[in-house]
Design a protein that fits this description.
Blueprint (H helix, E strand, L loop, with lengths): L10 E5 L9 H13 L5 E10 L4 E2 L29 H11 L7 E2 L7 H10 L7 E6 L4 H11 L7 E7 L15 H15 L3 H5 L1 H4 L3 H4 L8 H9 L6 E5 L2 E2 L2 E2 L2 E4 L1
Parallel strand pairs: 1-6, 2-5, 2-6, 3-4
Antiparallel strand pairs: 1-10, 7-10, 8-9
Helix pairs in contact: 4-9
Amino acid sequence: MPTGTTSRMPTIYLSHGAPPLVDDPLWTEQLASWAAELPRPKAVLVVSAHWEEAPLAIGATTTVPMVHDFWGFPERYYQVQYPAPGAPELADRVRALLRTPRTPVQDFPDRGLDHGAYVPLTQMYPDADIPVLQVSMPTLDPQQLVEMGRKLAPLRDEGVLIVASGFFTHNLKALQEPTVPSWSVEFDAWGGEVLAACDVDALLDFENKAPASRLAHPRTDHFAPLFVALGAAGDDVHENHVPIEGFWWNLAKRSVQFG
């Protein structure tokens, strides 16, 4: 496993699953293997589909609590803890990079990690020994999120792993289907092709360009974090690979690394 930090961290978009992800032996192994191949980050910055707040908000920076933002699951999922250190210095850097007279930054010191952040991190960095900071997603507009990612890109040279957490297809009606529905297959295949081609324009216009986009994403919150990763990637969009693909509960779990 890598023990040092390279000069530039990659940036990633991952499909985070629901709390029962931790019971899936394949997906947990995929996430652990992916983390083992990454340079060890000095800190992790997470943008999750499950925290929308405008203007952009910075979460807890000292003691980082949990947000068990789901319902209807067995009690054991509500007992999960991920006591990662806070990242106050990273929060200061985020403020410096994103705050302007026209774009204020808020502080939510009691807002902890939601399941879009901690569920994958429990499998990628189970020792919870890397400082973690979660910030909100202030918009669903692809262009604005790309710009947000571009502004955060300097953090990659400071050892920060930028994690954009969503789900490559996200329509919970799929959970009621006996097999993977065609719209999930078609959107996932299209996404794989345009990522391989580094066709950022097509991704930005996915609602019009992708097949079955309205079914794959009735609301675009779980695809939107990808644009933060794209923006932070810069020219590294041309150096992407897909460490995780396939389906879970009929939803595409495609995840991508840039750089």
